[in-house]
Fold each of these.
Amino acid sequence: MNRREFLGTLTSAALLDIRWTCASSGRKVEPVGVQLYTVRDAMQRDFEGTLAKIAGIGYREVELAGFALDTDGSVSYWSKTPHEVRNALDRQGLVSPSTHVTLQGLEPDNLPRVLEASHVIGNRYIVMPWIDEADRRNPDIWERIADVFNRAGEACREAGTQFAYHNHWFEFLPVNGKLPYDVLLQCCDADLVRMQLDLCWIRVAGSDPVEYFNRYPGRFPMVHVKDIKKFPQMTAGGSQTFGDTLEDMTEVGSGIINWKRIFSQSGKAGIKHYIVEHDRPASPFESVSHSYAYLERLRY
């Protein structure tokens, strides 16, 4: 019996089963979380209602944004106390493995409060996501930032938490002949400072995440997962505008990033959390729904 005769004997249901088996073979992307910055306006308007919608899509992990150090020295997220955040997460069946905090939050007088808040919420990672442009103009800023990160990482370790850094595009553009991201990886203690690699921003800057996985295995327990429609021309100086318009970024799986190639190296990278993000979606809930559905289907 040749291939055509064999296929002719199969029912449509059997063919569907075969196609599904092929589609479902391979490794699955999990756990899939979402960075709540994507739905930041909705979080501000309706904190728990937004969490309920996120849980309804299927997400079980969320990464916190909306961090603030209040005038009384307390920590809040979207004007909610850490206990209010934790209670809302528990009611929706969500966990928050990580939170983004400001550089101010890493200062010695502030970090203990940040760590206490994160302990209440259940965060396992404290992530610093941004170096201001004014700071980036200072000589040897990246070596100095590495010192700050190492000190913060030591304090986090003593508190049973892991410190990490989240990149944008500028870390992959040369400064004095060096890539700032390379400086951080070389100057930061690998145990104290992990990396939350934004897989979109590194590609926007023209670098290859797989190359970094090969050079620094195990240093990337978290990744941000978002897609782009085209590769722009980025510059080291000035404020960036890429991602500020609806024409730039897109939902995961709708753009040009080769996710299977990247995720096939997840074991080497040490990835434990895949976090969906879109900086400025036209419809935030549709965006995170589309990205979740794609990643749920993806096998690599």
Note: The chain has a mean pLDDT of 90.
Amino acid sequence: MVPLVDAMRAIDPAVPVFDVQPLTARMGGVLLLSRYAATVLGGTGLLALGLVVLGLYGTVSLSVRLRLRELSLRMALGSSRAAIVRLVVRQALVPVAIGVVFGLVVALGATRVLAALLHGVSPHDPATLAAAALTLLATTAAAGACPAWRATRTNLMRSLQAG
């Protein structure tokens, strides 16, 4: 900054020069509110994703526990463990996939409202929308696979006798 101030004083020493800052420092204060809002919204989104994962895991876990006798019977009749896990994960993914499609439609409809909060990202950015959809589907698959895998490790005879 000193060379700039010296150059300005060399042109006209009577002009007062004060508070010289780069443009990035000046814009940092202007964009502070937007950055804060983005941080809060991002944190809220991560919290919501965590709640979704916990809710899905609990729902699928309860469903597997209630269907343990059926799943054990399928395994006793020759179904492989991988087939049982695929069955449970597929049944967990269907309603979430429907919700993702509905959510993408709503998100595309709400882009005009949220366009003011998006800096550096297009409201119709396909990569962002695809990343959000794939994140939800992947977390659903993981939340469904864990209880299903645990159910395939149970004692078949005890599960069939318990009902």
Note: The helical segments are 2-11, 23-30, 32-66, 68-76, 81-109, 111-114, 126-152, 156-161.
